[in-house]
Specification:
Distance between the termini: 42 Å
Largest sheet: none
Mean pLDDT: 83
Number of helices: 3
Radius of gyration: 14 Å
Number of domains: 1
């Protein structure tokens, strides 16, 4: 039995590209090593930041 974490196909690609983009942004703007580590952790959970920003924008 194949255990595949991503069943959605294009959703995995979207998350993967978003992760790489967020990682480049957060580490590129880091001013120290620990800020870079924090940037890596933020890059992992970037969809939560996206949903939060959208909900704030529409007023929920």
């Amino acid at each position: 039995m194949k255990n595949n974490a991503c069943h959605a196909g294009s959703a995995c690609g979207f998350y993967g590209l978003g992760f790489i983009g967020a990682l480049v942004y957060y580490i590129g703007t880091a001013s120290s090593f620990w800020i870079g580590v924090l940037g890596f952790l933020k890059a992992i959970v970037w969809p939560a930041f996206l949903v939060h920003g959208i909900m704030q924008f529409i007023g929920l």
